[in-house]
Amino acid sequence: MYEKEEKQLKTLYDNIQVPLDSLDEAIFTGFQKAKTEEKRQFRGKKWVISVAAAAIFLVGFFTSIRISPAFADYISVIPGMEKIVNLIRTDKGRMLAIENDYYEKIGVSQEKSGLKFTIDGVIADESQLVLFYTITSKDKQKLLKTEKVRLESLEGKSIELGGISMGSPLNSEKGATVHSDMFEFYFQSPLQAKKLQLKVWVKGEKVKEEFTVNFELKKDIQLKKSFDINQTITMEGQKITFLNADIYPLRAAIHVKMDPNNSKRILSFADLRLVDENGETWNKINNGIIANLISPDEAVIYLQSNYFREPKELYLVFNKIQAVDKDEAFVVVDTVKRQILKQPKGNLLRNLRVEGNQLIFELQTKKEFNAFLFTRINDGNGKEISSNYGFTEGNDKGITKLGVSIPNPKNLTNPISLELSAYPTWIKGNEKIKVK
C-alpha cells in the first residue's frame, strides 16, 4: 500500500546531510544524581548520572531536526510510535534501528496513587539500553519528574553500569496529565541479562511513588562490528592515532590515542563523523554520553551508528578539534575570594560566584557555545572532589552560564582546579581516515 511512498522517503532519508554547525552542546560529568533544590528548577535540561569517573556527556538543546522530517513523519503514523520518534528523531542511528525493526515494544506498567508508569519499549545492544516510558496522572501536574532509577537483572547476572541518562522533567504552567521520555543505560561490560527489573521514583506536585516494573528482552541482541584502523594523523603539529572502531546498533565507538609529546591537550573532536562512499553522514551523539576519557591522552568517542547500513567504503572525517596548550588545561579558582586565578588565554570565563553548593561562571564568546567545560575537579591538596552535576544555559548574545556542583565549596582547601574537557579554541585541518 505504501511501497512507493516508502521508497521515496527512504531515498530522501538516505541522502540527507546532517548540519554540523547547528549542533547545540552541553557536556557535563558527575558521580551521583543531583539533589535538586525545590526552589530552583532548570528547564529544558537533561541530567546524566555517571558511574565511571571520566565520562563526558552531551545534552541536547535541540533547535532543528537533523534527519528527514518526512521520514520521521512516515514512521510516526505507526500506532504507538509517534512519541518514540519524537524522542529520537535527532539521532540517525536510532531511527535506522526502528526502520530495521530493532525496536522492541514492551507495554508493561504499574499504577499507584493516581500515577501510572509504563515501559513503552526498548532498543538494546551490548553497550547500551534505551528505555522509553510514559507517566500518566489522573490529575494535572505542573511538575512531574523521575528522581532515581535502577536497572537490575532478574537472572542473577550482574549489570555493570557506566552511566545513566535520566531524561527531562515535565514543567507545565497549565498542568498536564501525560509525560513521555526515555532512560539511557550505558554498560561497562556487554549486556547479557534478558529478564530485567526497573525501579524508578516518580515525583509530582503532591505525590511521590516508587514503581517496580519487570520486563523481558525477547529480540536477540545484535553483536558489534569491529574495524582495525591504526592510522596516525598530524593536525597543526599535534599527533593523533585512531586505533579501532566498534559499531553497535545504538552508537559507534572510536578509540583514539594522543601523542604524549603533543604541546596541546586535545579536548573534543568537534565535527568528527562517519561518511560512506556516497557521502551519507553519521555525526556525533547529540544527546547522551559522547566520550569516555581513559586518560588525558586516550579516549573513546561516540558517534551516531551506521550499523544497519552496509557501505562499501566508510571513512572518519573531521576538520577541527577543540584544544588548549597543556599548561592551560586547568581552570583554577579561589572559592573564598571568588576569583578566577588561572584560565586559558583570552579570559573568556568571567564573573565567578558561589551559590550554595554551585560554582557558577559566565563564558563570553562571539558565538553560542553550550559545551560544559569541566571534567575532574581537585582541591588545593590535590584531592579529587566528587561533582554531583553540571549544567549550561546559553543565550543569543554569546554569554553561556555554566554551573558545577561541589560539596561545601567555601570550606574546601583552596585553590580549586577544574580540568577542562571542552573549550572554544580549535586546531583545524582536513582529515579523512579509512575505516572500511
Automatic annotation (TrEMBL):
TM spans (from-to): 47-67
Name the record gives this protein: DUF4179 domain-containing protein
Keyword Acetylation found: no
Record-linked Gene3D superfamilies: bacillus anthracis domain
Keyword Transmembrane tagged: yes
Keywords: Membrane, Transmembrane, Transmembrane helix
InterPro entries: DUF4179, DUF5643
Domain DUF5643, chain residue ranges per copy: 224-335
DUF4179 domain span: 45-136
